[in-house]
Amino acid sequence: MPRSSAPQSTSSSVASARVTRQAQLLAWLEKYKRYPRVAQEQRQEGVAYLRFTIDREGKVISSQINQSSGFELLDDEVLALIQRAQPAPSPHPRWLETA
Questions:
Q1: Which residues make Cβ contacts (< 8 Å) with residue 66, sequence separation at least 6?
Q2: Fewest C-beta in 10 Å: which of 3, 16, 35, 70?
Q3: Among the listed residues 94, 70, 66, the one whose alpha carbon sits nearest the alpha carbon of residue 10
């Protein structure tokens, strides 16, 4: 029996675009990551969760640590990372329509 593919729903399309944009932003940030030398020497490790907002031109208009890594040096580096990585890559025009 032949199977037909169902059309993708709008909510599914939006979710897919959001995942793709998130992957694009993570790859962009990866290029600018630095591990603070002093934090390495002190064997500080952790994950900081960053929340940021960018405008359509890729300029960071706000950023904040959503969850600390537990180390001030690492948290400060995350905040510096988002500033030095500007501008963010331009989003695909379709993504702007779903925003």
A1: 49, 50, 51
A2: 3
A3: 94
| DSSP state, residue 93 | H
Q: Would you place residue 28 in the very low, low, confident or very high pLDDT band (cuts 50, 70, 90)?
A: very high
Residue 64 has pLDDT above 60, yes or no: yes
DSSP 42: T
Separation between Cα atoms, residue 5 and residue 27, nearest integer Å: 31
Q: Which of 87, 93, 91 is nearest to 24 (CA)?
A: 91
Name the burial class of residue 62, with classes exposed (0-12), middle (13-18) and buried (19+) by CB atoms within 10 angstroms of its CB: exposed
Sorted by where each starts, the structural domains of the chain and their CATH numbers stand as 12-98 (3.30.1150)
Is the pLDDT confidence value at 78 over 80?
Answer: yes
